[in-house]
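Researcher: Next entry in the queue.
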Amino acid sequence: MRTILRRPDFRLLFGGLLASMTAESILLLALAIWVKDLTGSNGLAGATIFAVIAPMLLAPLVGWFVDRYPRRPFFLAANALTAALLTPLFAVRDAGDVWIVYLVAALYGLSSITLGAALSGLIREMVPVELLAEANGLLQTVRQGMRLIGPLAGAALYAALGGWALAGIGIVGFLTAAAVVTALPTPQQAPPPVRLRWPAELGAGLRHLAGEPALRRALLGYGLGSLVMGFSESLIFAYVDQGLNRDAAFVGVLVTVQGVGGLLGGLCSPALVRRLGEVGTLAAGVAFFSPAALALAYPDIRLGFAAVLLAGVSLPLTMVGLHTLIQRRTPPTLVGRVAAATQAVVSGPQAFSIGAGALLVGFLDYRLLFALVGVATLVAGGYLWRGRHLSAPPGTRLPVLPAPRRPAEDADRPLATGTHLPPPR
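Model: Structure for this entry, 425 residues:
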């Protein structure tokens, strides 16, 4: 990862992202805690997380919007706007103002999708193809590190200073990211606009995902794994309570160990992508979840620590493999839409899985459910592994990417000037 940090432009971007990722990690859990304090309701506190996730339904529209503008100024404006949308939190006083928290949470979720899609396109624009895995691996390593300290820091700051201080910290983080991005050099060649009718542009990301073999297999395999991986969000509480006979607070210890695994996975992911390719790395990430789940079916604290460590390793491998595959196999003009559409396609099974796990754990033995998760993720990982040849490791010659299709009714019209794809780097 030292290679990517030797690039002054990426080093500058990384500094800005460090500030915004710190704000993100502090805010998410703290908003739910704030609602819990205001209302005394666990359900209303959980609804805060739902408010953040709900805008995922708008991901295709967000991606279309992101792709219409140059990457650097759009990313700058999105960070500044995110800072501005946090300001209504200063008006929250009592339980009657909870709707403000929900509104900000929903807008924050929409902003998160926008920033993710814009960042994916910006990295694709700034970073050579052979260094994409290193860039994504570094960002995932930092995200996993933030998972270790961010929620605890947010809860501690909220307890000491209150919700207004959290809003202030979030605003400073996003404004810092925006200020840093202003110093980034303007790219020589901005992505050309796509001159299509807007319904065709809106669905272009989904059509690309369905038509590109490596991306199609990646989403099918990861989607299959996601249908059960979310069970663990509820099963881990049953494991600690019924299996280890410990208080629920012990889950925090396991989450910390999982975060250590996430750091290891983030550090190892670029080397794995270079060796196995993106689909192979994604397969390894999904498959690593299988022995972790099977080990958790047997209540032993030593096995438990090893299992959550392995589960932590799996997450950054899947994210780095998937993000790098999108960036390498997508025309620059479509990266925003494809990244946003991927978020929507992946988050659907994950949300269903979390809800289904919360329901099933009340009727079935948690050990049986962990065994089911282990078998299903092994099958999903095997399906992905059989398609690893679809994505060659970086450094091999990439296939020529086709330009986005035009609708049939426009087939007889000439393309507008500047709609051709730039030559491969």
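Model: Residues 239 and 245 are 8 Å apart (CA to CA).
Researcher: Noted, moving on.
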